[in-house]
Amino acid sequence: MRVAASARAREGVRTPNDDFHDWFGALAERSYTRVERVPLDGLDGWETDPRTGNLRHHTGRFFTVEGLDVRIPGGPVPAWSQPIINQPEIGVLGILVKEFDGVLHCLMQAKVEPGNAGGLQISPTVQATRSNYTGVHGGRPVPYLDLFRDPGPRGPLVDVRQSEQGSAFHHKRNRNMVVEADGEVEVHEGFRWFTLGQLHRLLAERDLVNMDARTVLSCLPFAHAELARELGPPADPFRAALFRSCDPTAGSRHSLGSVLSWITEARTRTEVRAHRVPLAGLPGWHRTRDRVSHESGAFFDVIGVRVEARGREVAGWSQPMIEPHGTGVVAFLTRTLDGVLHVLMHARAEAGYMDVVELAPTVQCTPDSYAYLPESARPRFLDEVERAEPGRIRFQSVLSEEGGRFHHALNRYLIVDTDGGPGARADVPPDDPDYRWMTVHQLVELLRHSHYLNIQARSLVACLQSLLVPEEPAPTTERKVR
Amino acid sequence: MRVAASARAREGVRTPNDDFHDWFGALAERSYTRVERVPLDGLDGWETDPRTGNLRHHTGRFFTVEGLDVRIPGGPVPAWSQPIINQPEIGVLGILVKEFDGVLHCLMQAKVEPGNAGGLQISPTVQATRSNYTGVHGGRPVPYLDLFRDPGPRGPLVDVRQSEQGSAFHHKRNRNMVVEADGEVEVHEGFRWFTLGQLHRLLAERDLVNMDARTVLSCLPFAHAELARELGPPADPFRAALFRSCDPTAGSRHSLGSVLSWITEARTRTEVRAHRVPLAGLPGWHRTRDRVSHESGAFFDVIGVRVEARGREVAGWSQPMIEPHGTGVVAFLTRTLDGVLHVLMHARAEAGYMDVVELAPTVQCTPDSYAYLPESARPRFLDEVERAEPGRIRFQSVLSEEGGRFHHALNRYLIVDTDGGPGARADVPPDDPDYRWMTVHQLVELLRHSHYLNIQARSLVACLQSLLVPEEPAPTTERKVR
């Protein structure tokens, strides 16, 4: 399967670039969605537990909104309370791939989620909760799901459970899968074949490729090395260092064994005590008719929405959502060490993680929130990102988090090169307890396993992948209907 | 560091084989331990929670004995209740290594634990609970622990958290470490340098190398490949296939990606609902003066012991322990596929695991218990192990589980070759949901990460390692004092 050809192709064998926006615009017109805010007590099918104040669906399925009491002794904020989404079921995020004329294509879906700021987004072939495939919500069957339930004798190309936002979810994970289609595939309305090159170009567009697509793309195991081999070393030093970083035989500041030991140390040293508690009476949080919010006005609110949709499996429903305050910053700082690009990873504890700490981007925060937190909680390296000269910003795009649970959760994703020049102040000693410079091939190796890279880091790995291919004129970026 | 030389050497550079039993026997004489059964109400420092009936230390430290309500829908036994040890702290199991004349040596300790059937056992350099290093039990400092707290700039050779028995512990893990000493090391009383070859020979002796030593040895990352390279292909076909199995470039029935997908599928499909509940009133279990036991008389009892010890950090203490009924069987079936030895691994759910399922030996059970369980619960492949012709049994030794929590928990560890002949009936289809044939290098790769191989499988990996080296006359097996 020629992944490199897939990344390089100016357009797909099956789908030209030119008509993408026509296709997408036409779908956007047809897939009408109306999202209306409703009081938390007026959510059809949802109820407030009289004892705990938790929000739950009357079937007991989907998810609940509860309280969480968090203690991280020695952390920047050692104790707090917050609402949390409890959704223990493991869903499937799957991309179906197929070779046409030797070029890998991904079957993607243009899909609306109620929390999407722009409506339609490019999504994986399948986004299915366990409720989806047991059919508990009474909707239509999810197209292509059977191909992921039974991926055939060769098995999936990618199949790994990865975490989602540990700041909003208690132990939420999804199964990230890539499956190669064996025979003919009928392309249903709303679906389209894309090459990796086409998806990478769309990643740079504002709020277009959804979170679920980004995490699955980041787990594709073969893309980096094969691309590096087929495309040859580029002239641009940054991109040349990125190519070398994808080569598993290239050097790295720390061996993988040493990185694993660093993670073990962080997970042993850090103590996260997170206990689910009633949402009612959660210290610092107040419920009004329309929302649960923090007394400071910061962080996020729990809101209620009523959704009417066309082009979805269910025509109308209500649900609680998380509405963050302010746009976040999610950034990789990079540096070339001995000719090999390294990324500065942060061992980050979040209350909802399965295993204490995951590797996060160098910076991951919502700057607005820091007005309400102690100065000591201000993220390291945020200055390096906010003050970066434009020439150092190798990637920048505003992308959103999952629109099925988050309402308009936008983050500015950046990749900032710190090499040389006056802005290159960011560095850490080799034994810094919280940060390590790592190569791309080390990240790729860890992505074969669960719970090493957090969801924000996985998004940025997909963005980093997109920089492997030489820049070329972007397709018309005007989108007819959003 | 010459691991192979370490495995090959008939005796250590520092310590001849001949005087091992003198050394060990003399220590056994001096390290007097008396273990006396006492009523559960008469455990100094321990109390029964009046509300829950749980057993706990008055300081709130060490561990508690609680109840667990377990549901595994679709499992061989879909629901049960049992007592469980809750010990969430992560301790350290560490082996200090050092090269003498180019030969790797491991500093091991002859250590008594109250549950050891034979008294002294060969243990890692350090076995420290978190209570040990915070000094909560008021004992003497643990020798060499500082070398594991701060392993120096090169970092540890092994550093990975691994699970312990999921049938007895709730989420218990230890940090397995191997650290290379930088300078001179003073050898304290009770400690001694061993080559890997010496340890491997001792592994075949009954109840001598303790569980903690076995798990740390199994995680040594370089042993297999280097041994295979230096020792060259042996004449014996089984050992030749084992050598090839250690070579990461050798073929395997399933790719590592396919194995990881199988584990993901098992962990997604299997639902383990385990809830801690009060020990008092646990269905099917009764507390008498001396024990908590199952109404059938099967499985295990919770007992109380009072320990008087010399050669330990604390001279006397009391504690609850788990006393299993009957000797267990823990076995790998092996088969040579395309010239490469494969081991049949079982994706096994245990109630106390962090992550649903771990890879277990082909057979892991206590045959006596099956009198009390439905016929459908009888383990697959137990017959193949119990009826194996003596020539097929490549390894057999009775070894015990951790003597700090288990009282006389003995298991018969076996490696049974199923190749050719009438006994070679064991096979599984390639898509069997519960079993996979795997190579040694695949097991070694997974051992870099947490929670893939269970404690019994790790013990057997250490035993498998010991078969790499040609058999030679064992040292005198008579042990002067046990």
From TrEMBL, chains A, B:
Identify the Pfam families for this entry.
Answer: Hexose_dehydrat
Reading the lineage from the top rank, the first entry is Bacteria
Coiled-coil positions are none
Q: Where is the dTDP-4-dehydro-6-deoxy-alpha-D-glucopyranose 2,3-dehydratase domain?
A: 18-220, 258-464
The GO terms describing molecular function are: lyase activity
Gene3D superfamilies, per this entry? EvaA sugar 2,3-dehydratase subunit (3.90.79.40)
In terms of InterPro entries, this protein maps to: EvaA-like, EvaA-like_sf
Q: What is this protein called?
A: NDP-hexose 2,3-dehydratase
